[in-house]
Structure formats: structure tokens, C-alpha cells
Design goal:
The complex is a heterodimer of chains A (360) and B (188). Chain A has 360 residues and is of the alpha+beta class. Chain A has 13 helices and nine strands. In chain B, helix 1 packs across helix 3, helix 2 runs antiparallel to helix 4 and helix 7 packs across helix 8. The chains are: A alpha+beta (360), B mainly alpha (188).
């Protein structure tokens, strides 16, 4: 099935029928009048964040844990090895470790790592491939082993009951344990399982496997899921995952052919948390792009033609940045970036760029 | 600072332009069509009371989708209706809800059952993309996340959905229970 075919199938499955709107007989107008007759001063519960809230709070969530940058305000200085031995770590054989020897983590980084579920698969061959946070207390980490994949998503603890209720429509829950922690196993169909752990430390995890596992294979996998401490978790992520102590090395690579906007401080990238390479590239180029666009706007306002030209040239050069080309197969971030870069390079105001590029 | 009248005029314009898309958004995510009335009423009530947070008219729709998403989450959590609004709309939607055989072809049911088996974010990214017809950066705005994260989600959600659909029949008896809004019966 091609992507195009799949997309058409999804579109065709839309349950909404526009013709229904013709049969309202004034009900929409009636509702409008009801609303505007009410006071605007009543408190409103459960608002989504306003559109002007800095997006960085979401973007910089420690990817595998959703620790908003607001919590990590300022720079997360990762302590470099200074010859001190870090605390002894439990050694988990079988977990692919990307760490080269002991690493010291600052208290801030450790605290951030503490905030996520820190589950690993203690079995040879499993490797974290995708890591990112979607929002505070929400995130995803996916592990792959050959053709098989296990995804762990976590959500805020206060959503547990509603998720759990929803899953009761899937199948009867079966009580299982994941590293001695109670959980419910749901069976979507033969060979398709999900396990929802009870909430812990403000979030809960749902673990989902790729299709086609037997129950005994899945049970075996569950038996190897372990919860580890923050150091072990950080150390176990493979080299491709940009953990805080790898930020400066990876940032140097990403920025090698990228002109930096005025006032750009690569050291400040230490607050980006833990991300896979794609997410990391997006976050770093986001800051560079935002910096150049804001410089361009400033220079234009100040009538500084040379600075306008510099900013436009820098943004135009993004079509040659290696990092964006490397990311291009994985997703559309580069297209979004180039769209805004080209607007500015062509002298047009990049309306909405802060939202699109996640500027602070 | 806008006067009360300007505030109301602006709200009326936003309502007129966005009522249908919001009703569509809500209808796609509730079990019973009439439940969409509650979601729409609550969403516009929030918009009325938080007009200052609402972006300019041309960009209000994405913000409203974001509000509706939060309202829906409340409904999923069994949040009671705080205002008794939209009863007439509720009634009309209930009457208009005769099943359309065209929407119940097996392939569509299979796709919807498969969607219901995805995680909430995967499902929402797909629905916003293909039903609300939003661009990735617009989806990102509704979900308050990075567009790059949306692209990653989208391709993974597609792959998972393809596996689910390609796997033949959906699980027996499982229709969009995941998306069901459970509101208490009127008068209870």
C-alpha cells in the first residue's frame, strides 16, 4: 500500500458529513447568542497554553522525560570529567551503552533525567532509536532490535484514569508486572499488546510492541524491562542519541558549516536535554534561524543595510547546511526552515516564524 | 484596550467563520454526534471568556482546535458540563445523526477501528493532518509542539496504521471507544 493510497483511505474514513450543518435550523445562532449573553469574567477551567507562550518550554523538554526548560532555566552546565569518579553505577550487561567510560553529570541534568520513567530493555540487541518529549511529563522513547520495535510513551499521571478507561474498550486488562511495578496488559488482537504501568512520580508509561509477537515472546520482553537510575539511563542511550554530555560535541558537528547569528552562544545549547539526532538538529537550527531572522528584523528597522544583507545571506546559505540535508529523509523540518529562510532572503516579512520555528 | 462592543463583534466574526470547522473537529472525536454540541459550546465559551488570549482572527482556528482538544480531554475525564449551553444544537445534532450507509463501508470502518487503536498523539496527528487538512506546522501549533516532532510522529503513525489496516479485520466489536466522550445523561 503506497503512502498516497493510505492517505486517501484515512481521508475517506472521515466520519463528519458537512451536509449535517444545513439542518441546524438556527441552533448555531442560538448558541452564539447564549454565549455572548454570558459574563466574560467567569473563570475558565482547563485552558491550553496561550499562543504566545514560549514554545521552548516544550521543545527543550528533556526528550525522554518532558522536563520543561522552564524547570531547567538557564544553562545546564554538564560537569566535565575532572578526575573524580562518579558514584558507582549498577552495570546492566546487554544494554547497548554509548558512553565512553564514566561521565559526570551535573545535578541539574540528573534531576531532569530523574523526571522521566527511565525504563530500559535489559537484553542484547535493543537500542534506543527515537527519543523526544512532546510536552511536559509526556514523551516517547522507541527501542529497536532488528525488525522488532517497542515504543514507550508516557503521560501525566492525572490522565491515567481516562487512558485506562479507554483501554478497557480494547480488552479485559490482565495484571502483569514490569520490574516489580504493577501494570495492566491489554490485547488489541493476536500479536498486538500494550501494557500500561500504574502512575509513578507524576507520570505513567504505556508500552506498545510492534505487531506479530507471541504472548510468550512479549512476556519475555516484559521480564527484561528494568527501571534504572538516572546515571545508568543516560549512559545506556546509544551514541546517536544526544544526551546532555554529548551536546557540545554534536553541536560542533552540526554548526561546522553554519554561520552563527550575533550573540549566539553554543554553550547555551546545553539546556536542550536528550534528543535523537533529528530532534537535536531541529532544535539547534531553530535557535540559529530564530537568531538570524530576529537580527534581520532588527537591522531592517535600524536601516542597517549591511547587517540586513549579512542576515539574508546567512539564511540563504541554509540550503547548503549539511545538518538540514542529513535530516531531510527523516522529516520535514528542513522544508519548514527553508520556507522561512527564503522568505527573509527574498526580503519578505516572515509572518508567524516564531511559531513555525519554535523561537523563544 | 478594545471596547465591549468591539470585543463582541470580533467574537461574532470568529464564531461565524469557525463554527463549522469546530463542529467537524468535535464530531470526529466523540462517540455520539450530540456530544459534539457540548464540545463546541464549551470551546466557544472559553474563547468568549479568554478573547484576549485569542490570536488575530485569521489565525484563531488553530487556537480554537487547541482549546477544543483540552475541552475534549476534560470530557474524556468525565468533566461535568459547567454551563448548560447548546441544548438546541445538541437536539439538532441528535436528530441529524441518521447513519449514512456511505460512511459505513467496511474499508472506512477498518480505518477508523485502526485509528482507535493508535496512541492519542499518533491518532490526533493523523486526524488533524487528513481530516482537518492541516499542514505539519499547523498541527504543531494545535498540539503545542515542534513541527519536527510532528513529522516524526506522522511517519511513524502512518507506518503503524498501515500495519493495522494491512492486518485484516479489526478486533470484533471495537469501534471508536477510545474517542468516546462520556457525558452524564441530561438531568442526572
Amino acid at each position: 500500500m503506497t503512502d498516497e493510497h493510505l492517505d486517501r483511505m484515512i481521508r475517506d474514513a472521515d466520519p463528519y458529513r458537512p451536509d449535517v450543518i444545513g439542518r441546524f435550523d438556527g441552533a448555531a445562532q442560538h448558541l452564539l447568542e447564549e454565549i455572548v449573553s454570558l459574563s466574560t469574567l467567569e473563570p475558565v477551567a482547563e485552558l491550553p497554553p496561550g499562543p504566545l507562550r514560549a514554545r521552548r518550554g516544550v521543545l527543550s523538554a528533556l526528550a525522554a522525560g518532558g522536563v520543561a526548560a522552564a524547570v531547567l532555566a538557564g544553562v545546564l552546565a554538564v560537569s566535565v570529567l575532572d578526575g573524580r569518579q562518579p558514584e558507582r553505577q549498577p552495570v546492566i550487561p546487554g544494554i547497548t551503552s554509548g558512553a565512553k567510560g564514566p561521565v559526570g553529570y551535573s545535578a541539574m541534568v540528573l534531576k531532569a533525567a530523574e523526571e522521566n520513567p527511565r525504563l530500559l530493555i535489559d537484553q542484547p540487541g535493543w537500542k534506543a532509536t527515537t527519543v523526544y518529549g512532546f510536552a511536559e511529563k509526556t514523551g516517547t522513547i522507541a527501542f529497536r532490535n532488528g525488525e522488532r520495535e517497542v515504543e514507550m510513551n508516557w503521560y501525566p499521571a492525572d490522565q491515567y484514569d481516562s487512558y485506562h478507561r479507554d483501554r478497557l474498550d480494547v480488552s479485559r486488562p490482565e495484571r502483569v508486572q514490569v520490574d516489580r511495578w504493577p501494570a495492566d496488559l491489554f490485547r488489541y488482537r493476536a500479536g498486538d499488546f500494550a501494557v500500561m504501568l500504574r502512575p509513578r512520580d507524576g507520570s505513567f508509561v504505556e508500552l506498545r510492541s510492534s505487531l506479530g509477537w507471541t504472548r510468550s515472546e512479549f512476556d519475555q520482553l516484559l521480564a527484561h524491562v528494568v527501571r534504572v537510575d538516572a546515571r545508568t539511563w543516560l549512559a545506556a542511550l546509544p551514541a546517536e542519541i544526544v544526551t546532555p554530555e554529548r551536546v557540545s560535541e554534536q553541536a560542533a558537528k552540526v554548526l561546522a558549516d553554519v554561520p552563527l547569528p550575533p550573540g549566539f552562544d553554543p554553550a547555551a545549547l546545553a539546556d536542550l536535554g536528550t534528543n535523537d539526532a533529528y530532534q537535536f538538529g531541529a532544535k539547534v537550527t531553530s535557535r540559529v534561524g530564530c537568531g538570524w531572522i530576529s537580527e534581520w528584523l532588527r537591522a531592517r528597522k535600524a536601516g542597517d543595510a549591511a547587517a540586513v544583507q549579512r542576515a539574508a545571506d546567512a539564511l540563504r546559505s541554509s540550503h547548503r547546511w549539511k545538518v538540514l540535508h542529513q535530516m531531510n529523509d527523516a522529516g520535514d523540518w528542513p522544508e519548514v526552515f527553508w520556507e522561512y529562510a527564503d522568505m527573509v532572503a527574498d526580503g519578505k516579512s516572515p509572518t508567524g516564524y516564531e511559531q513555525a520555528l519554535g523561537c523563544e | 484596550m478594545s471596547s465591549g462592543t468591539e470585543h463582541e463583534d470580533r467574537f461574532r466574526r470568529v464564531y461565524a467563520v469557525n463554527f463549522a470547522p469546530l463542529l467537524a473537529y468535535a464530531t470526529r472525536r466523540v462517540a455520539q454526534p450530540e456530544d459534539a454540541a457540548d464540545v463546541v459550546a464549551e470551546t466557544f465559551l472559553v474563547a468568549w471568556r479568554r478573547s484576549r488570549d485569542m490570536p488575530p482572527e485569521a489565525e484563531a482556528r488553530l487556537w480554537l482546535y487547541g482549546v477544543a482538544r483540552r475541552v475534549l480531554a476534560n470530557h474524556h475525564r468525565g468533566g461535568a458540563r459547567r454551563e448548560r449551553l447548546g441544548d438546541r444544537l445538541r437536539q439538532r445534532l441528535g436528530m441529524a445523526a441518521a447513519v449514512d450507509p456511505g460512511s459505513e463501508v467496511p474499508e472506512r470502518l477498518t480505518v477508523r477501528a485502526a485509528l482507535a487503536q493508535l496512541g492519542e498523539l499518533d491518532r490526533e496527528v493523523l486526524m488533524l493532518t487528513f481530516w482537518e487538512r492541516l499542514e505539519p506546522r499547523e498541527v504543531a501549533e494545535v498540539l503545542q509542539v515542534n513541527p519536527a516532532a510532528v513529522r516524526t510522529r506522522l511517519s511513524r503513525a502512518r507506518a503503524r496504521l498501515r500495519n493495522l489496516i494491512g492486518d485484516g479485520d479489526g478486533p470484533p466489536g471495537h469501534v471508536l471507544g477510545v474517542m468516546a466522550v462520556r457525558t452524564s445523561e441530561e438531568g442526572r
